[in-house]
Write a structure and sequence with these properties.
The protein is mainly beta and 124 residues long. The protein contains one helix and seven strands.
Length: 124
């Protein structure tokens, strides 16, 4: 059997979105997605996930999503190891988005395209 690296998250955006450009002038966006654990008999715990979105998909997300927007993200995990400013070895895990689906009703901070009552999908 082959190896498989796939992640699906359903949560809310916890950061203000800022569309940036790479050194090769490609648009990208960093999202911070909050998900909650729901184990019976235990207190709810919130987990934060770093999600990277690229290209046209990043532009669509920056246009239509805001902090608090609910999304479903499909992608894969990327693990990076580097030295921090103090010379310590650090590991970072990010979700590299293949697909971002815009979900949920409107919140006061949400901005959606006209006629967007149904879910919108941004794919890369």
């Amino acid at each position: 059997m082959s190896d498989f690296n796939r992640v699906i998250l359903l949560g809310r955006i916890g950061n203000d979105l800022e569309l940036k450009k790479s050194a090769k002038d490609k648009p990208y966006l960093k999202l911070s997605i909050a998900t909650d654990s729901h184990r019976p008999g235990e207190e709810k715990v919130t987990y934060w996930h770093r999600v990277m979105v690229f290209g046209q998909q990043a532009e669509s997300c920056a246009t239509y999503l805001r902090k608090g927007s609910q999304v479903m993200v499909e992608g894969y995990l990327e693990v990076r190891t580097y030295e921090d400013k103090d010379g310590r070895k650090t590991t970072s895990v990010s979700v590299m988005a293949n697909r971002v689906q815009f979900l949920g009703g409107r919140r006061s901070a949400d901005v959606h395209a006209p006629g967007s009552e149904e879910a919108m999908v941004a794919t890369g």
